[in-house]
Structure formats: structure tokens, C-alpha cells
Specification:
The protein is α/β, with parallel strands linked by helices. It is about 45% helix and about 15% strand. The chain has three domains: about 5-90, Winged helix-like DNA-binding domain superfamily/Winged helix DNA-binding domain (Arc Repressor Mutant, subunit A, Orthogonal Bundle), CATH 1.10.10.10; about 95-160 and about 270-310, Periplasmic binding protein-like II (D-Maltodextrin-Binding Protein, domain 2), CATH 3.40.190; about 160-265, Periplasmic binding protein-like II (D-Maltodextrin-Binding Protein, domain 2). The protein has ten helices and twelve strands.
Length: about 300
Amino acid sequence: MKAPSLRALEAFEAFGRVGSVTKAAAELGVSAGAVSQQLRKAEEALGINLVERRGRTVALTNWGRRYHEMISKSFAGFREAQEAIERMRMSSVLTISCLPSLASKWLTPALFDWQSRHAGTTVNLLAREIEPDLTAEEVDFRISYGGKSQNYDQYAELFTDWVVPACSPEFLARHPVKEPGAILATTLLGIAWARDHRQPPTWNEWAASIGEPYRKREGEVLLSLSSAAIDAAIQGRGFVLAQWSMAAADIRAGRLVVPFERPLRLAEPYFVAWERSALEKPLGSKLRSWIGSLGQEQNGATLHWSKTFA
């Protein structure tokens, strides 16, 4: 005895469920003759009568009812899986995973504007350092940095950032500096990302860029989040090498000042990666395009800023 073909099983399952060859044919999008032919093929493969024919009436035999009970569970599972995939594809929820500092200082303010223009769509923003498994964790987009792009099949670069020494107006009033090198004698707020990321420019590198020696001083504070370091600088705790993408709004608002315009470029770009199925969701492609245009806008603004400061 050999197993019936999937097409024969599909016809038999549909017939047993709806109770009519005509209705089964309509559901499967084939002719009634094609369903009858597949029923016969299933019987030939199994070597038993699954249906009994009485004139124009066709009904399940005892063997047919038992066999249908057993295979119908599998077909119900297939239908549930198909419906689940369709719900996911048509879902109005889009999930973005983003590095925490970039999420809070760069993405979130702009995301509110995008959300207001696309009412009815829910955007779930996850601020996470760890790179997600897009498929397993049902994440549509990931915004991250540098070589982590190699973790993903589909990705695009967004922008390459710059840093500049910045502090609060109050801190500068208490610790006036007359030349760039004098910044190194004040309280410096350092940033140390997770080890699996290439580090942002350090005070040592910035000192070298302006031709000044760097001597590590006691009392320096090292923070793991760029956003936390920027916030500490706003609170008057010292100078920070602030990324333009994250500090531009605070600089424009006067919460931070840049006494000397000596920028330093980050070594690697930020990028956006996406799960292929995300583009099949309503507005999924639009959201990806918007993130890309936001990155291009930031890249243009950062380049203009760096040339202005050069």
C-alpha cells in the first residue's frame, strides 16, 4: 500500500469536511470531475473504499470516516498556519529594534512624526544592544552599527556620524577654555560601548587629532551609553564627545555648547537591516524607505556640519 498523493488527500479532506463533491470542487477551484478522480486515486492507493456512490449521492464509508478523522487534524493545522501567516503579513504592527542611544536621541523624535502621518499603524520600538534574530523574535527592522551588518541578509547603510566636544553653558562658565587643548584639563566624560562594537572616538584620539598630548586624569567618568554621557554633559558634569546625530537638537536649543569646532569622524556607519517578510506588511516598504531617507538626511546634515566646522 502506498500513500495517496497530496492532491488526492486534499480533495478527500475537503469532500469529507463539506460533504459534497460540488462544494469541495468550488473550495479547491477545480471541477467536480477532478475531485471525483482524486477520490478514486486515493482509494486505489490505499486499497479500500473511502466513499460509497449511490446514484448521484456520494458519502463516506466507515473506513472513509475513520481515515478522514485522522487526516483532518493535519489539514486543520495547515489552514491555521496559513491563516497565521496571513495575519502576520496583514498586521498593522511594525517592530523596530534599535541601539538604545540612537533610539532615544535620533529615531524616536522623528518616529512620532511618521506615526502621525500613518494613523492606524502601530510601531513597536525596542531599544536593545543585543542583535536580534529577526525571524525568531518577529522583529521587522534592526538599526545598528558597523560590522554587525554582516549578521543580516538584507541591509543598507544609513549614515556615518561625527563627534565634537560639547558641554553645558553652565559648565563652560565655571571652566572657561581659551583653546581646544584646554578642554583636556577639564572633567571629561568617556564613552565605552560593548566590546563587540568598534568603539567611538576616544579623548585620546581627539587629542591626537588636534595635535595635543593626552594624559588620563583621575576622576574621569566612563559611561556605556552615548545618550547617558550626553545627558550628563547637559547636567553640567563635564565635556563629552557628543555625536551630532544625538546631540544636534540639544546644541540648537542651547542645552549644549561647542566652544571649539573640532569634529572627529566615527570609524563605521550605522545601518538598517530588515526581515524580508516585513516588506509584505502594509506600510512595511514605506517604513523602510522612510528610515533610509532619514539616514540620508542625517548623512547630509552631518557632512554639512563637519565641513562647516572644518
